């Protein structure tokens, strides 16, 4: 199967280890992975902020870059949701019939966990990650893509892991892209609730399928000097005894704090 990796702007700029982990994981499972160098933004930030017509060139470029592959895989539920749910609407707004046809002809775009479980039909990827982990299901993957418990199914099969349930897991962390900028007080309060629940689990690691949410939650975890680190799902699944996950944000060397000082709404 010839797969294109859609890395997304966020990962390309801030979390390149996640993209490397996706390639390592998929190649270990026998896939041929290519990284189209011409890829750019999917237009999610523009679309969510009301600039739909400004998305048109980005959607057109996406259809050109990713045409011809068997599948497109991305370590981001939010960007996968943008492509699957809204690129067609952008093409409609453009009034360009050829663009609408190109969007329809694109290969399916999958978030990583649904590609592993639904397409490859694999739940045990041979990973090893001996840490206490809790998982945050991001809003787009949960509500827009409907990935359900696929990430948890994959994590439960990881050898050595101590996977603990996150209380109120389905509550939003408060990031929401530009929402966190425009509604900062609300965003901070929502993140405080999420951090309190993370600390209640006693986990060493918080994982998710979107680094945007992990950045938001991880910023608060770091400022509070909790010692809890954030690791993308792909990096846990790519980790083995021979090649353990070592990239990504590291925990603070300072002593952990409890939920004291974490403001609730």
Automatic annotation (TrEMBL):
Q: Which InterPro entries match?
A: Cys_rich_dom (IPR004017)
Residues covered by region (Disordered) = 239-265
Residue span, Cysteine-rich domain: 3-83, 133-217
Membrane spanning stretches: none
Query: PANTHER family of this UniProt entry?
Result: LACTATE UTILIZATION PROTEIN A (PTHR30296:SF0), UNCHARACTERIZED PROTEIN YKGE (PTHR30296)
* Name of the featured protein: (Fe-S)-binding protein
Identify the species of origin: Streptomyces luteolifulvus
A GO term, aspect molecular function: oxidoreductase activity
A single GO cellular-component term on record: cytosol
